[in-house]
Amino acid sequence: MSPKVILLFSGKRKSGKDFLTDHLQELLKDRCEILKISQPIKSHWARENNLNLNELLSDNEYKEQYRLDMIKWSEAMRDKDYGCFCKQACLNAADKPIWIVSDIRRKTDIQWFKETYKDIIKTIRICADDDTRRARGYQFKSGVDDVASECDLDDYTEWDLVINNGEGRQPLKEQLSSIISLISLS
Ligand SMILES: Nc1ncnc2c1ncn2[C@@H]1O[C@H](COP(=O)(O)OP(=O)(O)O)[C@@H](O)[C@H]1O
Ligand SMILES: C[C@@](O)(CCOP(=O)(O)OP(=O)(O)O)CC(=O)O
Predict the structure, then answer these.
(1) Which residue from 22, 110, 160, 176 could staple onto 122, CB 3.0 to 4.6 Å apart?
(2) DSSP string spanning 63-105?
(3) ipTM for this model
(4) Is it the case that residue 165 has pLDDT exceeding 90?
(5) Nearest ligand 1 atom, CA 102
(6) What is the per-residue pLDDT for 129?
């Protein structure tokens, strides 16, 4: 069974990508699977450098120590094949009707998914103001917050849905129902 819908989520660090996609998964239960493009990157990095993969995958400070190096290595890999990590994430994914990709970062990520899975793609941008992100632990870092990893989709305008997850956000239930309304499994 191949997926019927693929939801691509994008947003800056601490905008709430994991928070919202984890809650979405609680709602959709076993109909969905969360895919992370950063998973193959982090797996490689953990293996090569003898690091704790679970810590790298968590939302705590641990991954921040390695983010800059992971960005540099993964950019070099993407220069050779822009879809390499998207492909790996999909190869490891379970057969579920809904795939939730929680960390789209580049226009080429969207391009790869649209080329590969055509019109079952929906794109969602999560926004949060800087004060809210800072309250969640964000601190600007040169080489991380001013490069493609965080900025390439800033000027993308073709989102199917934009969700405010900062100051003045709607209650979680409403945020989630706006996402659910994108899904039609006919
Ligand atoms: N709407 C929200 N309400 C409460 N806490 C939130 C909300 N959105 C995000 N957070 C918290 O902010 C932190 C960063 O969120 P996270 O989902 O890890 O961001 P990202 O994956 O975009 O870097 C986490 O501790 C998360 O629980
Ligand atoms: C090297 C990275 O894949 C690390 C991404 O780690 P996370 O996806 O865990 O980051 P946030 O959730 O936004 O905090 C970035 C990249 O450019 O591929």
Answers:
(1) 160
(2) GHHHHHHHHHHHHHHHHH-TTHHHHHHHHT----SEEEEEEE-
(3) 0.97
(4) yes
(5) 21
(6) 98
**What domains lie within the chain, and their CATH numbers?**
5-180 (3.40.50.300)
CB neighbour burial string for 81-93, b if at least 16 within 10 angstroms, e if fewer:
ebbbbbebbbeeb
Distance CA 24, CA 18 (A): 10
If you ran DSSP here, which 8-state letter would residue 11 be given? E
Looking at all shown ligands, the one closest to residue 41's CA atom is: 2
- Distance separating alpha carbons of residues 73 and 89, to the nearest angstrom: 17
Atom of ligand 1 nearest to the CA of 19: 17
DSSP 8-state class, residue 36:
-
Query: What tens digit of pLDDT does each residue of 27-77 get?
Result: 999 999 999 999 999 999 999 999 999 999 998 899 999 999 999 999 999
- Model confidence at 155: pLDDT above 80: yes
| Protein residue closest via CA to atom 15 of ligand 2 | 71
**What is the value of pTM for the model shown?**
0.96
List Cβ neighbours of 78 (8 Å cut-off, separation of 6 or more).
84, 85, 106, 108
Contact 93, 68 (CB under 8 A): no
